[in-house]
Amino acid sequence: MSFKPLFARSLGAAPGRLHMAAHSHHLWPDASFAGQVECWEDAARLADRKWERVMGELWPAAQAEVAAELGTRRPDGIVFAGNTHDFLVRLWAAAPRRAGGPLRVLTTQGEFHSARRQFARWAESGDILLETVPVEPVATLPARMAEKAASADLVMVSQLMFGTGAWVEGLASLAACAAPEGPWVVVDGYHSFMAVETPFAGLEDRCFFLGGGYKYAMSGEGLGLMHCPPGFGPRPPVTGWYAEFEDLTLPPGQVGYAPDAMRFMGATFDPSALYRFLHVRRALAAEGLTTARISGHVRQLQQLLLDRLEDTPLGEAELLNPLDPGPHARFLAFRHAQAAEWQQALMARDVVTDVRGDVLRVGLGLYHDEEDVDLFADAVGALA
């Protein structure tokens, strides 16, 4: 079955393109356009009063959608920002420094660029003491990090590694180390949110979760999201006035905070991503497209693609994330010395993939069907 009609605008805008990078810039469904238009129309119609609708209707609706996706049943534990880097800064400022010096950060060597770069710069400036651990073997990663967690203030680990597509099982053992007084455990779920069914269930009492709308939520930029466990960081030092939005009647000079996840809020923001997100969620629900169903669609295409690639140059590459039972990335990661050359050669044919070092990533999504798999396999077969 093809779901291309849900993406008519994005696909029609570049009809000659074969976009095999749904894990990178996921194409936007038509519903997101309707959300963008509604945001503009609300601003024109309501002016100053638009914030009553944004914070009174859209914000809690989006919180409920995210909590349901994560499997936490705690909408009030969800807060939004323009991107996850904003939350990284707020977490760095708020996390307890139990040793009295710079924040002690424990993370992996496979984190996404925003965290990797920021941690490296803070380590360079002396604002943190950084320890990184190898991702492999991934089966023992949570246990290895748990052994070191006692000497850290902030622990950050991706749930699904962006470079290799490896799924990190057993985060409960690491979550057991977390406490309000430290260490704090942060799960980066950018590649698991709306790609894996209820990825955060059972971890919500002790861990933070970071995700966003740019990828499998199909909502574009501007929707960074964070789940905040209760009792962790009641008064974040990096704070905007929306963190006391519920009570603007405090006497001058007092710095108030919301008791829920709103305590990590910033200031005035662009609400258009909330509109897009909610429109997309409604459109998916109307089609009966749950995360599990979409994942099933993608997995069938991934298996078909692997079968079609066997006799092509890409068939000689090492597949870093085989289609084993259990959660799987929405992309296939192929390691080969010619990965960068292949990516460029495909791009010259208007076939979009991406590359991380010597790993070519091929991402499939709801807007792909069997015809796309055949076209991609033909393009790869033509590689020198």
Automatic annotation (TrEMBL):
It holds the Pfam family KYNU_C. Keywords: Aminotransferase, Hydrolase, Pyridine nucleotide biosynthesis, Pyridoxal phosphate, Transferase. One of its GO terms (molecular function) is transaminase activity. The keyword Chloroplast does not apply. It comes from the Bacteria. Coiled coil: none annotated. This is Aminotransferase class V-fold PLP-dependent enzyme. It comes from Sphingomonas swuensis. The lineage of its organism: Bacteria, Pseudomonadati, Pseudomonadota, Alphaproteobacteria, Sphingomonadales.
